[in-house]
């Protein structure tokens, strides 16, 4: 049966409400009282104080659909079928209430009965020595033993530094051979054939930070399922960019650019990148994050500029992000009414930032043209590392754009020289920042944020991985 994203969200929350969970609204993308995390990246992240016992939850069973951003996945966006920087995570949580048995039974009931997914396509994984979870899947649910995979710590033990941690059990959906037959297209592999849909974390231990594990008095359940991925399975489509709400957005991108989806792989990557990034941008602004040169504002600026940049790659040469933003709001206001309420504000912020980016590009182009004239005079076909770096650092001109424009004239960039100049700058900046503090942390912790607006922008893995389900 066909179900839209907005309907699936509701089905999930209704289901867990019927299992006596308190339905709570998505928390803001901006963490509250949590210096360890820049942006909320999982359903459990804003609930941490309830897991650690620091705060008393309003009820011992809670369910949410949490807006999440993972810039650590940015390299995958547009390339895999299942990653966005922005996504919604459905979750049911137990703070010292129910444990493994109920969690597994309910996840199975929801997927196979409520949503009607074919059980023969589902494969659970458990932590290598978690016999208890294995038995529940095998004996109680009736999944054949050879369909239950035991994976090691890397995949199936959730922990982050000291504090509550434990084994987890994930549910994968086999999308069939047409989604890949390579070595990675196996259960638990990185390919897109077996798609991880749901992660059930059994936080039953406490790690004292020195690697000593003790059983927790309060055993918790923390689960997370990507709403878009669930929709991929239910709607039987190729990727998260083909589910109803994202498809509407994708179509809008194509309409504005005057291109067709599935005409060229290179264009498709740009279309998907824009489709994803504009969602992150819209939701970040709606949560009060403003473009800036540091912290969250910096992430916002980079995502917005990356979207604008891919727009240029598609041949769009006018302002377009505002129009897309309206489509995001239209598609998601059902679950997030605040989008509609703050619409004017969101559009204004995005429009101003897009203007700034366009000015940067125009200015950079003028300078680059001068540099090219100079090269022609000297009969040179290589732009020096110093000049490339100057464009990028002083004028904020994206390096991939520099390369592309030069390519048309058969000019290359001295990449080694560029890297050397960048490294020199990095060391200088790092030394300067060692003494400053940012949100209670040594400001250098954000050095992983690549300052380039390029395909090399990898976000800040270490931070986003913190508190992942
Ligand atoms: P993957 O291995 O596919 O990258 P993950 O193991 O990193 O996923 P978890 O940290 O376990 O994901 O998060 C719980 C759930 O959230 C996943 O099972 C998936 O459904 C969803 N999810 C995680 N990352 C993304 C993303 N970048 N885009 C969309 N959904 C995601
Ligand atoms: Mg991941
Ligand atoms: Mg995984
Ligand atoms: Mg996982």
- Per DSSP E runs of 2 or more residues, the count of β-strands stands at 13
Q: Determine the CATH topology of the largest domain.
A: BirA Bifunctional Protein, domain 2
Second-tier CATH architecture of the largest domain: 2-Layer Sandwich
Q: Measured on Cα atoms, how large is the radius of gyration?
A: 24 Å
The distinct bound ligands, ions and cofactors come out as: adenosine-5'-triphosphate, magnesium ion
Structural domains: how many:
2
- Number of helix segments? 16
Give the strand content. 15-25%
Distance between the termini: 29 Å
Order of helices and strands: HEHEEHEHEHEEEEHHHHHHHEHHEHEEH
Level-1 CATH class name of the largest domain: Alpha Beta
The average pLDDT score comes to: 89
Shape: globular
- The CATH superfamily label of the largest domain reads Bira Bifunctional Protein, Domain 2
- The computed structural class is alpha+beta
Percent of residues in helical segments? 40-55%
The largest sheet is: 9 strands, mixed
Provide the low-confidence segments as ranges: 436-469
Family: Belongs to the class-II aminoacyl-tRNA synthetase family.
Domain Alanyl-transfer RNA synthetases family profile: 3-469
Keywords: Aminoacyl-tRNA synthetase, ATP-binding, Cytoplasm, Ligase, Metal-binding, Nucleotide-binding, Protein biosynthesis, RNA-binding, tRNA-binding, Zinc
Cofactor: Zn(2+)
